């Protein structure tokens, strides 16, 4: 006789599976604002206030940054600290998990920046080929 608890095993994480929670976490990190927010927080050893992050991540709206910070906090990548001072303020910093995720993001961003000339050249070639489409 087998134990039912051993029959139901949790499947291994697989980001390519639509049913896997890792996909949602990856989308938060690699989405339009998640990676940039992590990189902004990674650049400094001290926590940043909301307005400081917004200044570093050019183009993000208050609403989108607030949503992004909330999602990254939920995923355990950032920590939000509320200071009960006058006036009260909140700051954010990367957790150990966030720091671990920031490392490959920094490498990816650095590679994209280093290869930007090739990217721009490829875009020009593509656009020239497809201008009549």
TrEMBL record:
UniProt KW keywords: DNA-binding, Transcription, Transcription regulation
GO molecular function: DNA binding
Pfam family, one: HxlR
Family matches, as InterPro entries: HTH_HxlR (IPR002577), WH-like_DNA-bd_sf (IPR036388), WH_DNA-bd_sf (IPR036390)
Domain named HTH hxlR-type: residues: 20-120
Residue stretches spanning the membrane: none
Family annotation (PANTHER family): HTH-TYPE TRANSCRIPTIONAL REGULATOR YODB, TRANSCRIPTIONAL REGULATOR, MARR FAMILY
Protein name: HTH hxlR-type domain-containing protein
Species whose genome carries this gene: Corynebacterium callunae DSM 20147
Biological classification of the source: Bacteria, Bacillati, Actinomycetota, Actinomycetes, Mycobacteriales
């Amino acid at each position: 006789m087998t134990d039912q608890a051993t029959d139901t095993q949790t499947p291994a994480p697989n980001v390519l599976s639509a049913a896997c929670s890792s996909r949602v976490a990856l989308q938060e990190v690699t989405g339009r604002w998640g990676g940039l927010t992590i990189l902004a927080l990674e650049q400094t050893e001290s926590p940043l206030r909301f307005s400081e992050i917004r200044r570093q991540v050019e183009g993000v709206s208050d609403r989108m940054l607030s949503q992004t910070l909330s999602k990254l906090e939920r995923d355990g990548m950032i920590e939000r600290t509320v200071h009960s001072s006058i006036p009260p303020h909140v700051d954010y910093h990367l957790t150990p998990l966030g720091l671990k995720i920031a490392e490959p993001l920094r490498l990816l961003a650095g590679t994209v920046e280093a290869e930007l000339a090739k990217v721009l050249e490829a875009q020009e070639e593509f656009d020239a080929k497809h201008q009549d489409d």
